[in-house]
Amino acid sequence: MFKLSSLTMKSHETIWQPVIVHGSMRAEKERLGFRTKVPRSVNMEKLRNGYLFPEISKLELQHTEKYPDAKLISLGIGDTTEPLPEIITSSMANYAHALSTADGYTGYGPEQGNKALREAIAKVFYKDLLVIDTEVFVSDGAQCDITRLQLLLGSNVTIAVQDPSFPIHVFTNLQAYIDTSVIIGQAGEIKDEAGRYRSIEYMNCSPHNNFFPNLSTTSRADILFFCSPNNPTGHAATRKQLEQLVEFARQNGSIIIYDSAYSSYIRDDSPRSIYEIPGAREVAIEISSFSKFAGFTGIRLGWTVVPEELLYSNGFPVIHDFNRIVCTCFNGASNIAQAGGLACLSPEGIQAVHSMVNYYMENAKILVETFASLGYQVYGGANAPYVWVHFPGSSSWDVFTEILEKTHILTVPGSGFGPAGEGCLRISAFGHRECIREASRRLRTLFQ
After folding, report:
1. Span 100-116, mean pLDDT?
2. What is the pLDDT of residues 217-270, one digit of tens each?
3. Count of alpha carbons within 13 Å of 390, Cβ hemisphere only?
4. Which of 151, 221, 308, 398 has its CB surrounded by the most CB atoms within 10 Å?
């Protein structure tokens, strides 16, 4: 018989493994209840215990129970906070109300998305970049699309991910890119105490290399997951960096999965799409989302672009297989959500969502100035709503705990995004202005 025992690898990180125990088989069966004869997936057993953000939510709940009268400020999970512009909500409300009429009722829509929205996405985000509406696949969010792409690619491909990176690409919008790779069977076994998987190439992206991997020492991988602006560091890759990435992919015959969910936050001349780089259409898929630039985290709407020029090694177009995956696994994004998305991309809607983006970027400026004035090295916050703060010589989890205990501010430990994030914290600029200012005051009091 077996029971689950924990093998602690790092703080807040546990690997569960079976160990043999002795005792009555009947008593064990009675304790566990009825069990089927279906074995658990070996890939699910390889997952590191827990996803970063549910773990943070658990600690948040414990803290509020311990300090019921404290005013907790959450600068952790990157969830938007400001009300949606009325032009967007009224569009969704009108569409929903029309469903109660014979003329306005609609059922299933195209799995790939409503044509008007696909055309609008191509026009607004990819003007002059040769992207056409039939290459745009509307979805229920970038995270779901990453999972569908993993299903498309299968378990036999090799992958490379940025370190640090958002936990979804394997969770999936580092852990996300990583967890989906583990589940699909790409990752192999855990190889070290940092929780790295043997079959994943980790591309170190830290201040010493300007948050861009040394591609001359990076092993070839079939799939390169790359997020810009990066979550969690907030770094937007420069044109030169992306030219190097595209050239690396072309030389190695790799496919880039490019996550541009935060591109609307870019303030300088950094590329907002991988397709701004010559040759990218032959080696890159781009995923994006309405979540962060339009506040659709709860509405769920995103898209993926698969260029017609992108081919497998046998010459077959990738877009045809992705279309098959979408039609097999998905019935299309909500028509109501798509109505809201279309309103976002109208001239009035674009102006309204840009105001929201500017609001969050002003929050980021306040946070950057706060930590910089305290003498800390601060990154991000200029082209993304995330501030990446380095606490030299300290454990990410220790700093996270100290700030939570002494200021009642929730952040995210950098090590949760990968080994290269150790010693850093990610601070989210998503929040009400009064909360950001109060957080600034509390942090100055703690660290001065």
Report:
1. 97
2. 999 999 999 999 999 999 999 999 999 999 999 999 999 999 999 999 999 999
3. 12
4. 221
Indicate the pTM of the whole model.
0.86
| Least confident stretch, 79-88, 92-101, 384-393, 410-419 | 410-419
In whole angstroms, give the CA distance from residue 340 to residue 217: 45
Mean pLDDT of 135-144: 95
State both tokens at 342: 């279309």
DSSP-assigned letters across all residues of 431-447: S-HHHHHHHHHHHHHHH
Residue 195 banded pLDDT, cuts 50, 70, 90: low
Query: What is the residue whose two structure tokens read 């914290």?
Result: 425
150 to 247, 250, 254: CA distances (angstroms): 23, 21, 15
The angle subtended at Cα 159 by Cα 156 and Cα 160, nearest 5°, is 170
Residues near 222 by Cβ (< 8 Å), separated by ≥ 6? Answer: 153, 157, 158, 159, 254, 255
Rounded to whole angstroms, how far apart are CA atoms 61 and 74?
Answer: 12
How far is it, in rounded angstroms, from Cα 31 to Cα 27?
Answer: 6
Question: How many residues make up the chain in this entry?
Answer: 448
Q: Rounded distance, CA 45 to CA 47, Å?
A: 6
Residue 307 is predicted with a pLDDT of: 98
* pLDDT greater at residue 185 or residue 331: 331
Q: Which tokens hold the place of 40?
A: 């658990």
Q: Check: CB of residue 159 under 8 Å from CB of residue 201.
A: yes
Strand partners, 425: 389, 413
Bridge partners of 173? none
User: What angle, rounded to 10 degrees, do the helices at 318-329 and 142-153 form?
Assistant: 120
